[in-house]
Structures are given as structure tokens and as C-alpha cells.
Specification:
36% helix; alpha/beta; CBS-domain; six-stranded mixed β-sheet; four-stranded parallel β-sheet; Rossmann fold; elongated
Amino acid sequence: MTTLMTGARANVVEAIGGTPIIKLNHITKDINSDIYIKLEYMNPGGSTKDRIGAYMLDQAVKEGTLKPGGTIIEGTSGNTGVGLAMWAAVHGYKCIFVLADKQSKEKIDNLRAFGAKVVVCPTNVAPEDPRSYYSVSKRLSETIPNSFYVNQYDNLHNRMTHYTWTAPEMYEQTKGDFDVFMATVGTGGTISGCGRYFKEKMPNVKIVGIDCEGSIVAHYAKTGEMCEAKTYVLEGVGEDFIPENYDFDNIDDWEIVGDKESFLMTRRLLKEEGVYAGGSAGAAICGAIKYAKKLEEPKKILVLLHDSGNRYASKIYNDDWMSDNGYLDSSFDVQIKDVLQMLNKNGKIETISDKATIGEAITLMDKKGISQLPCIDENGVIKGLVAEKTLLKPVMMGEFNKEDNISLAFTMNYKTINKNELLSNVADALLQKEVALVMEDNKLVDILTDIDVLQYLSKTRAY
């Protein structure tokens, strides 16, 4: 056998680590502090969990808890599973992973692509519930012969990974030239391991954890009291119990972020910084900006970003998913009346009687230069809408005569909405080229079209 080629790694596991640190330049323009990010998605398996997967299993082999031909079992949000599966592929082990059903399809598909068996469990159950992915993982390890339950939550090799590897790497890269280290929290391994190392090397450094709304971790850290967890959508952030990997003595402060702001920030990272990262990255940057705004003087803030955006293509980076779940851009979180005011719409709406003829409608539309004409009855109730595009073809083809009643040309491709409602409530209709008929006290006061929204966005966004 020849010697290893110069510059090459022996296998994919040996390629883990050495991920770059870069500066954010656009998202941070409104704060005085500098934010730097460590791109852990550039590990071969796509996340920082490659590190704990390799380290924990190496230690398990050394300690004799993982034996030749064994089966690796773990409950995971997906990324740890990839790290474990990658190591297992190189070393010849089988894997079974248990995931909560809120995890993205891409994560599940990734694990199955490695040849692993995947068990999906309900999200909204307590950790001690026999259906939870914690309980199912443990039960499988107790019933499957020659298996090893990794248990990243309570396996202290998790935080030792970051104490002996991730943090020293960052310290070497930066020579300790930062004031604050921040990371989102889940199992507690990253923040605790890195926090301990940095505190030993840099006594004045601040370690700040970023938790999400619905999680109990930050509340417990601040008060010492357990509270009831609530449902949230972010993956890989927060917990509904306190894993043993937490070392709260080395965490100085906390920031808490929500699902929506995190998802929107994740998309901004890609569009404004070219950083294709997962939802926890958006959460991390939201937390870092909130923390930076509280500082009395500028600081250098180093933030670890955990995973890649390619595992969220069907969710965070999917416009339909974002829209269906109410995670719309803040440009849509305005009242319809404010949009109309910005567009200088005068509220003078031309209407036509439902007893009028098609010829009268065409004449009125031509005279007023309008393309939509609501039709109302004698009580002012909207009966339908006549639109230029629905009139043109049937008139040209002779299907309609000028003397025909206007009701023949009605289109129902419209939505009525109160002027005090949010633009987001009618966004889907406008995307489908429907017209929004704006009402106040059950009276028609204006019309909003997809072109109006484009004009509004051009006035409120910088391209």
C-alpha cells in the first residue's frame, strides 16, 4: 500500500473541522458592534454535529461501550444523526435514529440515504412520555442486542468535544480577538464546552446563550425553576427538559428569540450575506443583534452557526411553506388602509348597477380608464366583478352582445377584506391574481390589486 497523498485526508471523518470564520457586513449595518460567524455547515456532513458524532463514538470505542458489529441508536433532530451515520459508514456500524415529526423531510431523507433506519415520533409529548423520541431511543437500545445508545443530551463527551476541539480551533483562528461568544442552545454541549474553554483562556469574555420562545432552558438558567414548555417550530434549538451537558456557571447571559424572526433572518442571511444556513443560524443572529443593541460600547461578537440551509429547502426557503404558516415578511404586516394611503389611492370607486348592460360597462371602463368594475345591487351589496381581461375574449368572439346583462360577465376572482385587516391576510389571493375589494362598515371603499402591492413594495423596500 502506498503512503497517503500529501494534503489528503484518510477519510471523510478526518475532514471534519477547520471551518472558516467570516464577518457579517450588511445585516449588521444598524449596530455598532461587529458580528463574526463560524460556518460550521462547511463540515463534510453539513453541521457542527459532525464533531460530536465522531468524538462521542471514538470515546465509546475506547471505553468499550460500542463494540464491533454494534448498532448505534440515537434520538436526534437530524444533524447529530448525520454526524453519527458518517462515522458509522467509515467504520462499518449500523444505525437507528429516532426523530420528532417536526423535523424537515430533508433531514429524514439524509439519514435514510446513509442506510440508517429512521423512526419518527410525535413532537408534542413530554420527554417521559413513552412515545417521545427520548423514550423510544432508550427503549430501542434496551431491546436491541449489541446496541449503543449515544444519548447526546446526557453524554458529557458532547460538551468535551467542544472543549477539546471546537473552542481551541476558534481560539487559534482568532488569537482570542473577540469579546463575546454566542450560540443557540439545545443539548447544551456547544455553549458549555466552548464557554468553559474560553473562560479559562479569556477571563473577560462573555458567553451568551440563545434560546427560543417555548423552550425552558433560559428560564431555568435565570430562575432555577422548571416551567412548562410550549410548542415551537425551530429545529435544533431549545429543550423541554434540562440535559446534563449544561454547565450554567460558564454562561453569563441569555437572549430569547421567536420562530418567525428567526426564519426571516435565516432568509436574509442568504440574500444579503450569501450564507446558506439553517433556521438556528437565523435565531443566532437575531439573538446576537438583540444583545449588541444593549451594549454601551462596540464589541467583537463571535457566533457559531450550526448547520446548512439545504436541510430546510422545503420549509424556511420555501415561499409556500412560509406563507402557509404565517411567517411572512414584515412588509405584509401592515394594515390595508396604510397601504392605500401610501399609494395615494383616493377611495373613489366606480361601480355599476347589476341591472346594467355589458355595453354600458365597457363604455364606463373606457371613459374612466379602469380595468375592474364592481357590480352592486340597489342596496349597495356587491354582486360580482367585471374585469377587462374577462370581457375581451367573449366580446371579440361574439359570445356577449352589448345589450346582454352585465351579470353574464361577472368574475368571482376577488376577495373582500376590511381596510383595518393586515395585508398578509390577502397576500395569497393577490399572488393568485385575485382582486381585493376593500370594505369599511360593509361598504366598498377601494380596490387593491397585485400591481398595487408591487408598487407598495417598491416604495418600502430597497432593491
